[in-house]
Design goal:
about 350 residues, alpha/beta, 7-stranded mixed beta sheet, two-stranded antiparallel sheet, 9 strands, about 45% helix
């Protein structure tokens, strides 16, 4: 049993140890401990200053590189898309500042944006499949080559046709079918017409919004939102394919990709990457400058995935010299040799007053 004397001895021992510590700390150890702490603080201060200097130097270099890229942009893109007409499709809510930056580069390349639409959420909403099917049925007779296609393939082909289909006898005018398709898609609230289109486009630019969530890649796990994103990407791929098939060239452009988004999905699939071109990083000047260059390259039959991410073909698209635009109506006396068939067709075995993309 612990008695009172044990407590007395314990208390005396504690106070004795405390007294010895105070005496040593105030005496012979005072200088050594103080010097050691002072040295450590000074070393940390020096390291902090060095890191701050390194960061300042790095930021200065980045700013200089960015300034050089911005300054060289006009020279790089000048004339690369001379007189080409571009239709822009927002695949979601694209930031206005980002859109305007891309628009500036396209105009600097000699192109003009002749139409601009935005996909509404119903375009990729799984819950809206029945509504999309009804609209797809309405436009089937207005779009060539889609009779046996599925709902989303028909809609993709329909939108691409509405943007690019031109009359053979009047290449400056859209076909009546193109106008009707756009009207039906807008009435069904599948698209929003941001800029009215009066003339057919030569090329189509698909602008992807910044990815907020990295979707799954076809696995059975993941949240409902992630699976919905994967479902949406599969539909966006169909639109990219239709835009390429029914225009002189198309391009998918967006932010630095995340796993499972549209750009990374195209890059990871060899068959898609062989047909569809992409540009990533359009939140920065380098990516914005690459947009007209990549479109020109695609018109020139050069396909690639351009950006800084793993799997990209190159950092910058190759330089391509495109021939001047020829909008001579089919059958006109000055139609270039080889563009009109001897049987009065448009050279592809078709007749009539209209042609689709």
């Amino acid at each position: 049993m612990i008695d009172f004397r044990y407590h007395i001895v314990s208390l005396i021992s504690v106070f004795l140890a405390l007294a010895v510590g105070i005496i040593l700390g105030a005496g012979p150890l005072q200088g050594a401990i103080g010097d050691q702490l002072t040295g450590q603080v000074e070393q940390l201060r020096l390291e902090r200053n060095e890191l701050r200097d390194q960061l300042d130097a790095t930021n200065l270099k980045v700013a200089d590189d960015q300034e050089f890229i911005v300054a060289s942009g006009p020279q790089l893109v000048a004339g690369t898309l001379q007189d080409r007409r571009v239709a822009v499709v927002d695949l979601g809510d694209v930031d206005d500042e980002r859109y305007e930056a891309v628009q500036e580069q396209l105009e600097g390349a000699g192109a003009s944006i002749v139409g601009h639409v935005r996909l509404d959420g119903a375009w990729t909403d799984k819950k809206q499949e029945d509504a999309r099917k009804a609209t797809a049925t309405e436009i089937t007779d207005l779009v060539t080559g889609v009779t046996e296609s599925g709902t989303d393939e028909k809609l993709a082909a329909g939108l691409a046709t509405s943007l690019t289909a031109k009359q053979l006898a009047a290449p400056e005018e859209r076909t009546p079918e193109a106008v009707q398709i756009e009207l039906k898609l807008a009435q069904a609230e599948l698209i929003e017409v941001v800029q009215e289109q009066d003339v057919p486009a030569d090329v189509v630019l698909l602008l992807a919004p910044e990815s907020k969530v990295a979707p799954t890649t076809g696995t059975t796990t993941g949240t409902a939102d992630e699976k919905a994103d994967t479902y949406a990407v599969s539909i966006e791929v169909l639109l990219a394919q239709a835009a390429q098939a029914r225009s002189e060239g198309s391009l998918v452009a967006g932010s630095t990709p995340v796993p499972g988004d549209l750009i990374s999905t195209i890059t990871a699939d060899a068959d898609l990457a062989a047909v569809l071109s992409t540009v990533s990083g359009i939140e920065a000047p380098a990516g914005q400058i690459s947009v007209p260059l990549a479109l020109a390259a695609r018109i020139g039959d050069k396909v690639g995935q351009f950006g800084f991410e793993d799997g990209a073909t190159a950092v910058i698209p190759p330089s391509v010299q495109l021939p001047p635009v020829d909008r001579t109506p089919a059958g006109a006396p000055d139609t270039p040799l080889g563009t009109e068939g001897t049987d009065g067709t448009d050279g592809a075995g078709t007749t009539g007053e209209t042609a689709e993309g």
